Amino acid sequence: MLYIFNSPSPRNRRLGFTLVELLVVIAIIGVLIALLLPAVQQAREAARRMQCTNNQKQLGLALHNYHDVNRSFPAGFHNRNGWSWCTFLLPYVEQNAMYDQLSVTTSRMDFSDSNILSGAQTKITDFRCPSDSAPDLNDYLTPKGSDDSRPEVALANYVGSMGPDNAAVTDSPGNGIFWALSYIKMRDILDGTSNTFLLGERNYFVNKGSLWVGVTHSSTGSSDKKMTLASVRTSDGALNDPTNVKCFSSLHPGGALFTFCDGSVQFIPETIDAAYDYTNSSGTQTISTYQRLGCRNDGVPIGSY
After folding, report:
1. Which of 256, 274, 296, 302 is most exposed by smallest CB count within 10 Å?
2. How many CA atoms lie within 13 A of 71 on its CB side?
């Protein structure tokens, strides 16, 4: 028996989705994007944090090489010529041409010199955290050159550890690694190189970042201003303190990366004990784990953190 079926006429054939079906598809796509986006962001941050770790490892290695050649770490900064520890580290991070362009060994940080100014305005990725999407030039912190000008210069995210001692604000000996004319040697790190901060991070959007080229010229500006450009005291607020522009900080969620004096890089959580009291009832300083990590010679064991 032969059956004959009539095919539907073109007039009755469906040519697309209904409005309800379209809205359902859009909603499903939106849910999938909402689920996928955080995973993508986490993967990108993990990659940026790995790159930041690598940057700090390279700086730690460069500082060790500098110490091998010069028998000390570089000074945190120089009052007379303005250059910071980053500038003296340039030949050890494959930036010999920049070191020569700045004439570091023979000149001051004089921005009337076009070669010095152009060099100071050059972004150097070794000194930048990839999680910090700040502009190339730091419009918050502007050092004063010997020509009395204040141009914007290149931003940096890595600052030296000055230690918790207030004495380090001046040229007097501090208890960290970097301050004016510091030149700390390995033998001065009595608490052990694996227990002492060498350098850490400071982000631009909350704590103004830093500068790699140098600090305020010696003719003006307080030592405290100079410190904010080159080094950080661990007593200056807790880690990632948004109320204190001078503290260590980062845009990595939950903490910041630090290089220790043995060259290792560790992630320090912002929940670390950072209590610090100069005026307690016994007349002695109350110092926490965070501050002890910044101090090279207090002789007190450091617990877990």
Report:
1. 302
2. 0
